[in-house]
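Pipeline run #58 for the internal structure catalog. This entry was flagged by the ingest filter as a single-chain record with no existing model, so it goes straight to prediction. Upstream metadata was stripped on purpose; only the residue string is passed forward. Reviewer on rotation: M.T. Logging verbosity set to normal.
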Amino acid sequence: MNESKDKLFVIEEPSKNSVIVKYLISTSLNPECACIKLCKEQSLSNALGNDLKVIKKFAAKYVPKSIRVINKRQFEAGIVFPLENCENSLSMLLSAMGGDTFNIKNLYPIKIKSVELPASFVKNYGGPNFGVDGIRKKLNCYNRPLLCGPVKPCVGLKPDEFAKRAKEALLGGTDVVKDDELISNPSYNKLAVRAEKVAKAVEYAEKITGEKKMYFAFIGSGSPAQIMKKAEIAKENCTISKIMWGG
């Protein structure tokens, strides 16, 4: 290793605009050497070049005081990524902190344990429309955990069978039934038909139990345009649209 350059991959105190990722690393190397290898691969790769200003500004860096040795082959460490490397993008963040970890010789396996995001990054994301607090408000349920479950089996059920199982779950105490992520709009259980029938099951369960219920349809397959179209199909075919959309 080039000791003069390796010092550029160390930081004592991260700035407030840093992304801090805690890793669990398994390796035969000593923690300092392993951290430097990880920092190099996840930011500038091993083709560092000789521009020290670039390395200093854009290199991922490890925090020495964050290293916690677990056993002879495992330790935890905090790695700091410059915010510029992540481009205020969640997908770029995932690439930065995990994209090339399988390429690093002598470091395997590597596990991401936590991620700290600066306020300047978080402010770009508004979060979910409702969130946990919003869902509780819609369900008028505040004094206990919410129970949400997928209808099973996740594939193979026709709309009537699917709705029947959804109704049984809702009558049994489930607050929210949802499609499994393995089912969206298959030929044997079209989204439009399923949404309509499950909406009726929700309405029935609400009348019987006196409790608010919800149904979450899975629309996340296909292109962005197809996903938006599926959202409209689900919305249009829920006989009481307030079930899914809060309106």
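catalog note: Residues 3-122 form a domain with the Alpha-Beta Plaits fold (CATH 3.30.70.150).
catalog note: Residues 12 and 136 are 43 Å apart (CA to CA).
status: ready for reviewer M.T.
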